[in-house]
Amino acid sequence: MVWEVQNNDVMIKKLKEVVIDHRSRAWCRLPYPGHPKGCPNYGKDETCPPKAPLLEEIAEPPFVLVAVKFDLEEHVKRMKERHPNWSDRKARCLLYWQKKVDKRLREICEKVASDMPNALILYKPEAHGVHVFETCRRAGLTLERNPKKVVWKVAIIGTKRNSSYQPK
């Protein structure tokens, strides 16, 4: 089945190409507030680099991009109305919104994958060497770096190669 859906909140698109750049795995080590060594899951979680296998080792075409939009700007506005003393950083904190968006992404991915034989859903494509920004751009979705207004949570679904890898 060919999936092609695009509206204001969701994009589901069969990819013509997935841009591979193994350097994307190192981005997880870039420092960010409160984490001077980057993501604390780096090197610990099986779905994170360097433990996560490369895309070409575990999946093959067809590939489908699934992206779910979250209006961060509106969320920040709501949080500041409810909590006037909150800083901008606290109002943006992903602990207050990410689980809901991840759940929505997971539900959509599982529905799409149910129509694909031997589907493998990758919720952290960059961990597998995918250049997510460039892959999305070529698919017609421009992601904002360090987003202030809109966050897109992205997954890629491929066909499982002969591999025992099954991400959580």
Explain what the structure shows.
The chain is α+β, with helices and mostly antiparallel strands and 168 residues long. It has a domain at 14-70 and 108-160. Helix content is 26%, strand content 21%. The chain has five helices and five strands. It has helices at residues 55-58, 72-82, 88-92, 98-113, 132-138; strands spanning 4-6, 10-14, 59-71, 119-122, 150-160. A five-stranded antiparallel β-sheet has the order 1-2-3-5-4. A hairpin with a 3-residue loop joins β1 and β2. It is globular and about 55 Å long. The model has no long low-confidence stretch (mean pLDDT 92).
Strand portion: 15-25%
The percentage helix is 25-40%
Distance between the termini: 25 Å
Q: How much is the average pLDDT?
A: 92
Assembly state here?
single chain
* Widest β-sheet, arrangement of strands: 1-2-3-5-4
How would you sum up the major sheet? 5 strands, antiparallel
**DSSP strand count:** 5
Q: What's the helix count?
A: 5
Instruction: Give, in order, the helices and strands.
Output: EEHEHHHEHE
Query: What overall form do the CA principal axes indicate?
Result: globular
Characteristic terms for this protein:
single chain; globular; 168 residues; 21% strand; five-stranded antiparallel β-sheet; alpha+beta
What topology does this entry show?
Layout: E1 4-6, E2 10-14, H1 55-58, E3 59-71, H2 72-82, H3 88-92, H4 98-113, E4 119-122, H5 132-138, E5 150-160
Antiparallel strand pairs: 1-2, 2-3, 3-5, 4-5
Quick structural gist:
With 168 residues, the protein is an alpha+beta fold.
